[in-house]
């Protein structure tokens, strides 16, 4: 099965206070071979981007209504008349509130949903094929079935004394 990647570069806003925010370049990434997850890379002033992975379903729902708990919470709102999606991220290293343009996030999500419709994610994982491969007999299995040390009973049945 061919795997496809859907990416989108966009500029988020890191909310520092109600009056202040700074731009944060980011990349949304979806892999059809990891169909339940979305990946977000935040390009901050560091050698490597900050990576977050969470459920695609969470982001899809968060475009329409508040959802999530714990480390990732997502909800829609309006800021200065613009529709945005807010993402609150919590980690041991700190907390961040990020604002994303709702239209760009929605358009990207729509592409992922056309690629792998909701409810069909499990088909993409190849679990049945992987399980069949795992359980398939191999030539080495015959070694486990052969008894290198026959019991005394099996020798007696050969007509011993």
Describe this structure in words.
By secondary structure, the chain is an alpha+beta fold. Helices cover 27% and strands 41% of the residues. The chain contains 6 helices and 8 strands; from the N terminus they run ββββαββββααααα. The chain has helices at residues 56-62, 102-115, 121-124, 127-135, 141-145, 152-156, and strands at residues 5-17, 20-31, 37-42, 50-55, 67-69, 72-79, 82-91, 94-101. An 8-stranded antiparallel β-sheet has the order 4-3-2-1-8-7-6-5, with helices on both faces. Strand 3 and strand 4 (50-55) form a beta hairpin. The longest helix is centred in the last third of the chain and has 14 residues, at 102-115. The model has no long low-confidence stretch (mean pLDDT 86).
Summarize the structure.
This protein has 161 residues and is of the alpha+beta class. The chain contains 6 helices and 8 strands, in the order ββββαββββααααα. The chain is 27% helix and 41% strand.
What are the defining features of this structure?
161 residues, alpha+beta, 41% strand, elongated
Class derived from helix and strand content: alpha+beta
Q: Rounded to an integer, what's the Rg over CA atoms?
A: 26 Å
Task: Encode the helix/strand succession as letters.
Answer: EEEEHEEEEHHHHH
Q: Report mean pLDDT, rounded to a whole number.
A: 86
Q: What percent strand? A: 35-45%
Number of helices: 6
Spatial arrangement of strands, main beta sheet: 4-3-2-1-8-7-6-5
Mass-distribution shape: elongated
Number of strands: 8
Separation, N- and C-terminal Cα atoms: 63 Å
Query: Which stretches are low in confidence, meaning pLDDT under 50 for 5 or more residues running?
Result: none
Largest sheet: 8 strands, antiparallel
Helix content: 25-40%
- Multimeric organization: single chain
């Amino acid at each position: 099965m061919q795997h496809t990647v859907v990416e989108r570069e966009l500029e988020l806003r890191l909310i520092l206070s109600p009056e202040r925010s700074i731009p944060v370049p980011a990349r949304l990434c979806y892999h059809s071979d990891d169909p339940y997850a979305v990946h977000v890379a935040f390009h901050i002033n560091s050698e490597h981007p900050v990576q977050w992975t969470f459920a695609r379903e969470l982001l899809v729902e968060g475009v329409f209504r508040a959802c999530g708990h714990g480390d990732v919470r997502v909800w829609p709102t309006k800021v200065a008349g613009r529709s945005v999606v807010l993402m609150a991220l919590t980690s041991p290293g700190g907390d961040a509130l990020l604002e994303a343009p709702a239209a760009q996030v929605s358009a990207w999500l729509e592409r992922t949903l056309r690629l792998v419709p909701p409810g069909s994610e499990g088909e993409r994982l190849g679990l049945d094929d992987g399980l069949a491969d795992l359980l398939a007999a191999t030539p080495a299995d015959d070694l486990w079935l052969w008894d290198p040390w026959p019991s005394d009973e099996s020798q007696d049945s050969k007509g011993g004394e």
